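Here we describe the complex-level prediction in full. Unlike the single-chain runs in Section 2.1, the two entities below were treated as one system.
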Amino acid sequence: MMIGKRFFIFIVMLALTGCWDEKLLKDSSLVLSIGIDLAKNNEVKTTTAIRTSRIISGGQSESINYIVEEISNTIRETRLEVDKQIPGVYEQNKLRILLIGDKIASKDLYPYFDVFFRDPRSSLAAKVAVVKGEASEIIKMKKLKENLISEALIDLLKSAEEHTIVPVENQQTILTSMFDVGEDFTLPYMEKLDKDTVKVTGVALFHRRSFTGKTLKGNKPIIFLMAKGEKSKDIKLTERLENKDGRNVKNFVSFSVLKTKRNMNIKMVKGKPAATINLKLFIEINEYPEGSLYGQKEESALNKKVARRIEKEANAMVDTLKSANCDAFGIGRYLIADHHKEWEKLNWDKEYPDMAFKINVKVETVNRGIIQ
Amino acid sequence: MENNKENISCFQMFFFIVLATIGEGILSFPNLVFKDARQASWISILITGSIAIFLALTYLYLHRRFPRKTIYEICIVMFGKWVGRLIIVGYLIYFFLICMSINRIYMETIKNWILTSTPASVILFLMFMLGIYLGKENLRMITRFFQLCFWIIIFLMLMNLGSFPYLHWKYLFPVNEVSFPDILKGSRRSIPSFLGFDSLLIILPFVKGTMKSKVKSSMFSIVFIIFTYIYVMLTCILFFSSKELILIPQPILYLFKSITFFGVIERLDLIIVSLWIVMMMTSYVSYIYLINMGFCTLFHLKKRTIPTIIITVLVYFLVLFIPVSRESIVTQFKLITILSFIFSSVIPLLAIILSFLFHRKDMNEGEPQ
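The structure predicted for the assembly as a whole is:
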């Protein structure tokens, strides 16, 4: 019996000796960001930022980026080509950010994403953004405001998410929307403004799986996300007061939104859908150069003015969504769930741009800072 | 008593049933059921679950008539020596096929998800060693180990809560658009994930306790299984859009792959797979135990080491060397579903009917305590 046990332990120890699947960090080249663009003849151009460390004096090491660009038929093929020219093994499992040029985004996106979804080792939590012009232009900058490009872009997007300027999306959430008939997705939209400035300027609108070329900019992305009911820590807006033109500082009011309440009603009127969103904002005045807020009357007058202003922008935003045929509010999904019979008769792609869709806004001031 | 170590309490039986059942199916069943039953998949699971409850009640009734006998011994009593033995062999083949399919699913999943370049023989070898190590033990030992493993299920369910911010409740509707035949088709596809509760047929005689507490414990375990499956099914339906869920063979893993916990913890699918190996192993071991008992009845054996080694070696080499294709897996799946119908429902029911007709009961051994 003892011999049996010893033999057993011996056999088990054989299983501990090693591993076929070990992937040492020192052998691998970590891919942190990828930019995808359309090249000539429908080929794909990928621009990859790869992270390695270089040992500088005294045993300290410094992180460096290098950029590899490759043009081929598919994403996977460019990856193989890249792997041939870099030291170490191409490791895509730490991918943090994926930039898509607007030309390739206007085509069906799924074929370019398939390789990420199919590979068991890829992390689907990478952020995705659409870039005006070529995505490679941004990746090739190598450094952005003294930070390595991948980190800088991630921070840029994260702070934009925190300020509710862009929707919180990653590869996985996009995949879900790509297959969902009832909802279209939106992505952050970035622009390279000059030699060393990249800015998140708004939200890119998609229809089904392709970029419509239309974007929301200025205050509209924030209003869009509030109307969508996305919660966020920090929403700051500056609005022009009504009936006042010109660039006078007194014509503006700045406020933060502390809390939002929204509800969406979707009705079928004579076989056609009609949607209304009621949005209520609880705000804190940050800057009101006009200065007179001491009475109840002034306050409610200001509330009304701000509400009207936001309502106007919100409905302009709805018009943009409709003209882009981007059902970002997921009205289709509501119809599928609650009005299935009518939904089956609808030609949603044609119906949506003409549907009745209104946003009503109410504003309540809850805080005015430490002066009246 | 000689088989003293074989006895477990009703409380322990709960763990045995739950862990024997929840195992190979939990990763893939949302995809399979969803293909037919769509947003009404949870109803399919409820239907299969209620059938399981009904069957468990018939097993308990059979057990009341033969309180000291396993299904193997009942078969010999009811169907005669030769037919009975033939049925036992049938049971053994059926259980053996399930062992093979568990090993195959285990091998493929591990190879696809984590150890992509490790040879299949090594991956299977781990399961082979565990099978021998635990499979040859007595029921009490096995159940105690299962009791430990039970908390993995609870842990997995808690982890699932992480998907809550991403759920879209509207994906659940409209339920009434799914036709009833489709729901039934879906529930047929969920049958293999419910297999394992039929181990009641063999372990009931070794459970100490009153009839009432046995009923309670077995019912509670099946309700727990149904609850777990519906919970998993719902998170999958609500997390993925319909067309996506059809594309993904292991939705649970895919779900964890894309969630980030607390802003830093990612790729939990790797941990989930590792924990799931334990659940696979418990199912495998419970089937090895069931086969062992059959062998012992068939050949009047006392020790279980030899049958265990025969089973595990056979499973190891058959799974390794029989080439796999998508089709053969589907055929195996269908075969198991049909066999489960015969061995989990037809034969026990037949035994009950025959025992009624011939007034056969275990009289000389008295009423169960």
